Fold each of these.
Amino acid sequence: MIISYPIFSALMATILAQVIKIPLNYIKTNKWNFKLVFSTGGMPSSHTATVVALTTAIGILEGIHSNDFAISFILTVVVMHDATGVRRQAGEHAELLNQLVQDFNGLLEILKHPNTKNYETKEKLKELLGHKPLEVFFGALFGIMVAVFLFSLYPFPEDF
Protein backbone atom coordinates (compact mmCIF):
# COMPACT_ATOMS: atom_id res chain seq x y z
CA MET A 1 0.00 0.00 0.00
CA ILE A 2 1.29 3.44 -0.88
CA ILE A 3 -0.17 5.27 2.12
CA SER A 4 -0.57 4.08 5.68
CA TYR A 5 -4.00 3.43 7.15
CA PRO A 6 -3.66 6.13 9.88
CA ILE A 7 -2.61 8.78 7.35
CA PHE A 8 -5.31 7.70 4.90
CA SER A 9 -7.92 7.87 7.68
CA ALA A 10 -6.79 11.36 8.68
CA LEU A 11 -6.80 12.63 5.09
CA MET A 12 -10.23 11.17 4.35
CA ALA A 13 -11.64 12.61 7.58
CA THR A 14 -10.31 16.05 6.61
CA ILE A 15 -11.71 15.95 3.09
CA LEU A 16 -15.08 14.50 4.07
CA ALA A 17 -15.53 16.88 7.02
CA GLN A 18 -14.81 19.88 4.80
CA VAL A 19 -17.17 18.65 2.07
CA ILE A 20 -20.00 17.85 4.48
CA LYS A 21 -19.94 21.46 5.72
CA ILE A 22 -21.57 22.56 2.45
CA PRO A 23 -24.88 20.66 2.75
CA LEU A 24 -25.01 21.24 6.52
CA ASN A 25 -24.63 24.97 5.93
CA TYR A 26 -27.29 24.81 3.20
CA ILE A 27 -29.74 23.24 5.66
CA LYS A 28 -29.02 26.05 8.11
CA THR A 29 -28.97 29.04 5.71
CA ASN A 30 -30.76 27.79 2.58
CA LYS A 31 -27.72 28.99 0.54
CA TRP A 32 -24.96 27.00 -1.13
CA ASN A 33 -21.51 28.17 -0.06
CA PHE A 34 -18.77 26.14 -1.73
CA LYS A 35 -16.06 28.32 -0.18
CA LEU A 36 -16.62 26.40 3.07
CA VAL A 37 -14.52 23.56 1.63
CA PHE A 38 -11.45 25.74 2.18
CA SER A 39 -12.49 27.56 5.36
CA THR A 40 -11.89 27.00 9.05
CA GLY A 41 -14.64 26.83 11.63
CA GLY A 42 -18.14 25.49 11.22
CA MET A 43 -19.83 22.12 11.64
CA PRO A 44 -18.13 19.68 11.98
CA SER A 45 -14.61 20.57 13.08
CA SER A 46 -12.37 19.15 10.37
CA HIS A 47 -9.24 19.67 12.47
CA THR A 48 -10.80 17.56 15.21
CA ALA A 49 -12.02 14.96 12.72
CA THR A 50 -8.49 14.72 11.30
CA VAL A 51 -6.63 14.19 14.56
CA VAL A 52 -9.30 11.91 16.03
CA ALA A 53 -9.29 9.74 12.88
CA LEU A 54 -5.49 9.53 13.11
CA THR A 55 -5.60 8.64 16.81
CA THR A 56 -8.38 6.09 16.29
CA ALA A 57 -6.50 4.42 13.45
CA ILE A 58 -3.32 4.23 15.54
CA GLY A 59 -5.34 2.81 18.43
CA ILE A 60 -6.87 0.16 16.17
CA LEU A 61 -3.54 -0.85 14.63
CA GLU A 62 -1.18 -0.59 17.58
CA GLY A 63 -3.46 -0.64 20.61
CA ILE A 64 -4.27 2.07 23.11
CA HIS A 65 -1.25 1.22 25.26
CA SER A 66 1.30 2.03 22.53
CA ASN A 67 3.56 5.07 22.64
CA ASP A 68 2.31 6.20 19.23
CA PHE A 69 -1.27 6.22 20.49
CA ALA A 70 -0.27 8.16 23.61
CA ILE A 71 1.50 10.84 21.58
CA SER A 72 -1.37 11.09 19.11
CA PHE A 73 -3.96 11.22 21.90
CA ILE A 74 -2.21 14.11 23.68
CA LEU A 75 -1.89 16.07 20.44
CA THR A 76 -5.57 15.40 19.71
CA VAL A 77 -6.57 16.85 23.08
CA VAL A 78 -4.42 19.93 22.38
CA VAL A 79 -6.02 20.47 18.95
CA MET A 80 -9.54 20.05 20.36
CA HIS A 81 -8.82 22.46 23.20
CA ASP A 82 -7.34 24.98 20.78
CA ALA A 83 -10.37 24.72 18.47
CA THR A 84 -12.81 25.57 21.27
CA GLY A 85 -10.54 27.97 23.13
CA VAL A 86 -7.96 30.20 21.49
CA ARG A 87 -9.24 29.98 17.90
CA ARG A 88 -12.86 30.51 18.94
CA GLN A 89 -11.92 33.55 21.02
CA ALA A 90 -9.88 34.95 18.12
CA GLY A 91 -12.98 34.62 15.94
CA GLU A 92 -15.09 36.43 18.52
CA HIS A 93 -12.48 39.20 18.69
CA ALA A 94 -12.53 39.52 14.90
CA GLU A 95 -16.32 39.83 14.98
CA LEU A 96 -16.11 42.59 17.58
CA LEU A 97 -13.36 44.45 15.68
CA ASN A 98 -15.37 44.27 12.45
CA GLN A 99 -18.36 45.76 14.29
CA LEU A 100 -16.18 48.54 15.73
CA VAL A 101 -14.91 49.46 12.25
CA GLN A 102 -18.48 49.53 10.94
CA ASP A 103 -19.63 51.71 13.86
CA PHE A 104 -16.63 54.03 13.43
CA ASN A 105 -17.42 54.49 9.74
CA GLY A 106 -21.02 55.24 10.62
CA LEU A 107 -19.88 57.88 13.09
CA LEU A 108 -17.60 59.45 10.47
CA GLU A 109 -20.49 59.58 8.04
CA ILE A 110 -22.64 61.34 10.62
CA LEU A 111 -19.93 63.86 11.42
CA LYS A 112 -19.11 64.33 7.73
CA HIS A 113 -15.42 64.55 8.49
CA PRO A 114 -13.91 64.87 5.00
CA ASN A 115 -10.25 64.19 5.86
CA THR A 116 -10.70 60.87 7.65
CA LYS A 117 -10.04 57.62 5.83
CA ASN A 118 -12.88 55.12 5.57
CA TYR A 119 -11.50 52.00 7.24
CA GLU A 120 -14.20 49.76 5.85
CA THR A 121 -12.35 49.61 2.56
CA LYS A 122 -9.89 47.24 4.24
CA GLU A 123 -10.70 43.57 4.20
CA LYS A 124 -12.79 42.38 7.11
CA LEU A 125 -11.16 40.11 9.65
CA LYS A 126 -12.06 36.44 9.35
CA GLU A 127 -14.66 35.68 12.02
CA LEU A 128 -15.20 31.96 11.52
CA LEU A 129 -11.99 30.65 13.10
CA GLY A 130 -12.79 28.38 16.02
CA HIS A 131 -15.55 26.02 17.01
CA LYS A 132 -18.37 25.66 19.45
CA PRO A 133 -18.00 22.60 21.69
CA LEU A 134 -20.77 20.81 19.76
CA GLU A 135 -18.89 21.27 16.47
CA VAL A 136 -15.77 19.76 18.05
CA PHE A 137 -17.82 16.88 19.49
CA PHE A 138 -19.27 16.03 16.09
CA GLY A 139 -15.84 16.42 14.50
CA ALA A 140 -14.52 13.83 16.96
CA LEU A 141 -17.45 11.50 16.34
CA PHE A 142 -16.99 11.91 12.58
CA GLY A 143 -13.26 11.14 12.85
CA ILE A 144 -13.94 7.93 14.79
CA MET A 145 -16.57 6.85 12.27
CA VAL A 146 -14.26 7.48 9.30
CA ALA A 147 -11.36 5.53 10.82
CA VAL A 148 -13.56 2.59 11.86
CA PHE A 149 -15.34 2.53 8.49
CA LEU A 150 -12.07 2.56 6.53
CA PHE A 151 -10.64 -0.20 8.70
CA SER A 152 -13.71 -2.34 8.06
CA LEU A 153 -13.51 -1.94 4.28
CA TYR A 154 -10.75 -4.39 3.56
CA PRO A 155 -8.21 -6.60 5.25
CA PHE A 156 -4.87 -4.89 5.44
CA PRO A 157 -1.68 -6.66 4.38
CA GLU A 158 0.99 -7.23 7.02
CA ASP A 159 3.21 -4.42 5.74
CA PHE A 160 0.40 -1.84 5.76
Amino acid sequence: MRPRVDEDIQELMVRYRPIIAFRVRKALGAQNTDCEDLVSEILSQVLEKLQTGEFRGESSLGTFVYTITSRRIVDYIREKTKVMKYAPEPANFPDPQETLEVAEMSEKVKRALSRLKPKYREVLYLYYYQELSREEVARHLGVSTRKVSELVNYALKLIRKELKP
Protein backbone atom coordinates (compact mmCIF):
# COMPACT_ATOMS: atom_id res chain seq x y z
CA MET A 1 0.00 0.00 0.00
CA ARG A 2 1.10 3.55 -0.62
CA PRO A 3 1.91 5.69 2.45
CA ARG A 4 -1.03 8.03 1.72
CA VAL A 5 -3.47 5.11 1.66
CA ASP A 6 -2.11 3.96 5.03
CA GLU A 7 -2.63 7.47 6.38
CA ASP A 8 -6.18 7.52 5.03
CA ILE A 9 -6.95 4.19 6.67
CA GLN A 10 -5.44 5.38 9.95
CA GLU A 11 -7.50 8.58 9.79
CA LEU A 12 -10.64 6.58 9.05
CA MET A 13 -10.03 4.35 12.06
CA VAL A 14 -9.19 7.18 14.44
CA ARG A 15 -11.92 9.53 13.30
CA TYR A 16 -14.86 7.28 12.47
CA ARG A 17 -14.49 4.10 14.54
CA PRO A 18 -15.76 5.80 17.75
CA ILE A 19 -18.69 7.33 15.86
CA ILE A 20 -19.60 4.00 14.26
CA ALA A 21 -19.23 2.19 17.61
CA PHE A 22 -21.51 4.73 19.30
CA ARG A 23 -24.22 4.36 16.63
CA VAL A 24 -24.04 0.57 16.76
CA ARG A 25 -24.23 0.47 20.57
CA LYS A 26 -27.09 2.96 20.55
CA ALA A 27 -29.05 0.93 18.00
CA LEU A 28 -28.36 -2.54 19.41
CA GLY A 29 -27.82 -1.83 23.08
CA ALA A 30 -24.47 -1.63 24.82
CA GLN A 31 -24.79 -5.16 26.18
CA ASN A 32 -25.13 -6.77 22.74
CA THR A 33 -22.14 -9.05 22.18
CA ASP A 34 -22.19 -8.50 18.41
CA CYS A 35 -21.42 -4.76 18.60
CA GLU A 36 -17.66 -5.01 18.05
CA ASP A 37 -18.08 -7.52 15.23
CA LEU A 38 -20.57 -5.24 13.53
CA VAL A 39 -18.29 -2.21 13.93
CA SER A 40 -15.45 -4.17 12.32
CA GLU A 41 -17.72 -5.28 9.47
CA ILE A 42 -18.82 -1.70 8.85
CA LEU A 43 -15.24 -0.41 8.82
CA SER A 44 -14.25 -3.19 6.41
CA GLN A 45 -17.18 -2.34 4.18
CA VAL A 46 -16.28 1.38 4.22
CA LEU A 47 -12.65 0.60 3.34
CA GLU A 48 -13.70 -1.76 0.57
CA LYS A 49 -16.07 0.80 -0.93
CA LEU A 50 -13.39 3.49 -0.72
CA GLN A 51 -10.85 1.26 -2.44
CA THR A 52 -13.26 0.21 -5.20
CA GLY A 53 -14.17 3.83 -5.88
CA GLU A 54 -17.80 3.65 -4.80
CA PHE A 55 -17.27 6.85 -2.82
CA ARG A 56 -17.34 9.49 -5.54
CA GLY A 57 -17.07 12.51 -3.28
CA GLU A 58 -20.61 13.71 -4.03
CA SER A 59 -21.15 13.93 -0.27
CA SER A 60 -18.83 14.16 2.69
CA LEU A 61 -16.96 11.11 3.89
CA GLY A 62 -18.91 11.38 7.15
CA THR A 63 -22.20 11.10 5.27
CA PHE A 64 -20.86 8.12 3.35
CA VAL A 65 -19.79 6.37 6.58
CA TYR A 66 -23.10 7.26 8.28
CA THR A 67 -25.12 5.77 5.40
CA ILE A 68 -23.15 2.53 5.36
CA THR A 69 -23.41 2.30 9.16
CA SER A 70 -27.17 2.88 9.15
CA ARG A 71 -27.82 0.36 6.39
CA ARG A 72 -25.65 -2.31 8.00
CA ILE A 73 -27.43 -1.82 11.35
CA VAL A 74 -30.80 -2.22 9.61
CA ASP A 75 -29.54 -5.35 7.83
CA TYR A 76 -28.32 -6.78 11.14
CA ILE A 77 -31.66 -6.13 12.83
CA ARG A 78 -33.52 -7.69 9.88
CA GLU A 79 -31.32 -10.80 10.09
CA LYS A 80 -32.04 -11.14 13.79
CA THR A 81 -35.77 -10.60 13.40
CA LYS A 82 -35.97 -13.20 10.61
CA VAL A 83 -34.79 -15.78 13.11
CA MET A 84 -37.40 -14.60 15.57
CA LYS A 85 -40.22 -14.71 12.99
CA TYR A 86 -40.18 -18.49 12.99
CA ALA A 87 -40.88 -18.83 16.70
CA PRO A 88 -44.38 -20.20 17.17
CA GLU A 89 -46.81 -17.72 18.62
CA PRO A 90 -50.01 -18.52 20.41
CA ALA A 91 -53.13 -18.18 18.30
CA ASN A 92 -54.36 -14.64 18.53
CA PHE A 93 -57.69 -13.96 16.91
CA PRO A 94 -58.22 -10.35 15.89
CA ASP A 95 -61.20 -8.39 17.04
CA PRO A 96 -63.82 -8.40 14.22
CA GLN A 97 -64.43 -4.66 14.64
CA GLU A 98 -60.70 -3.95 14.36
CA THR A 99 -60.43 -6.18 11.29
CA LEU A 100 -63.28 -4.29 9.64
CA GLU A 101 -61.73 -0.90 10.47
CA VAL A 102 -58.35 -1.97 9.05
CA ALA A 103 -60.01 -3.26 5.87
CA GLU A 104 -61.96 -0.02 5.45
CA MET A 105 -58.85 2.11 5.98
CA SER A 106 -56.92 -0.05 3.54
CA GLU A 107 -59.62 0.47 0.93
CA LYS A 108 -59.61 4.24 1.53
CA VAL A 109 -55.83 4.36 1.09
CA LYS A 110 -56.08 2.33 -2.14
CA ARG A 111 -58.70 4.75 -3.49
CA ALA A 112 -56.58 7.75 -2.48
CA LEU A 113 -53.53 6.23 -4.17
CA SER A 114 -55.50 5.51 -7.33
CA ARG A 115 -56.52 9.18 -7.54
CA LEU A 116 -52.91 10.39 -7.42
CA LYS A 117 -51.11 11.37 -10.60
CA PRO A 118 -48.82 8.59 -11.86
CA LYS A 119 -45.62 10.45 -10.89
CA TYR A 120 -46.76 10.61 -7.24
CA ARG A 121 -47.84 6.98 -7.21
CA GLU A 122 -44.50 5.94 -8.70
CA VAL A 123 -42.40 7.87 -6.20
CA LEU A 124 -44.41 6.43 -3.28
CA TYR A 125 -44.14 2.94 -4.72
CA LEU A 126 -40.37 3.16 -5.13
CA TYR A 127 -39.80 4.78 -1.76
CA TYR A 128 -42.20 2.83 0.46
CA TYR A 129 -42.82 -0.49 -1.28
CA GLN A 130 -39.47 -1.04 -3.00
CA GLU A 131 -37.76 0.55 0.04
CA LEU A 132 -35.33 2.50 -2.11
CA SER A 133 -33.50 5.43 -0.54
CA ARG A 134 -34.34 8.92 -1.72
CA GLU A 135 -31.03 8.95 -3.61
CA GLU A 136 -31.89 5.68 -5.37
CA VAL A 137 -35.37 6.96 -6.26
CA ALA A 138 -33.80 10.16 -7.61
CA ARG A 139 -31.43 8.19 -9.84
CA HIS A 140 -34.29 5.96 -11.02
CA LEU A 141 -36.52 8.92 -11.90
CA GLY A 142 -33.74 11.19 -13.14
CA VAL A 143 -34.50 13.97 -10.67
CA SER A 144 -32.73 15.49 -7.67
CA THR A 145 -32.97 14.06 -4.17
CA ARG A 146 -34.69 17.26 -3.09
CA LYS A 147 -37.32 16.78 -5.81
CA VAL A 148 -37.94 13.23 -4.54
CA SER A 149 -38.49 14.62 -1.03
CA GLU A 150 -40.89 17.20 -2.39
CA LEU A 151 -42.82 14.60 -4.40
CA VAL A 152 -43.07 12.21 -1.44
CA ASN A 153 -44.19 14.95 0.94
CA TYR A 154 -46.74 16.36 -1.48
CA ALA A 155 -48.12 12.91 -2.30
CA LEU A 156 -48.52 12.15 1.41
CA LYS A 157 -50.22 15.52 1.89
CA LEU A 158 -52.70 14.66 -0.89
CA ILE A 159 -53.40 11.26 0.64
CA ARG A 160 -53.94 12.75 4.11
CA LYS A 161 -56.32 15.31 2.60
CA GLU A 162 -58.20 12.50 0.86
CA LEU A 163 -58.46 10.46 4.07
CA LYS A 164 -59.82 13.29 6.23
CA PRO A 165 -63.45 12.68 7.20
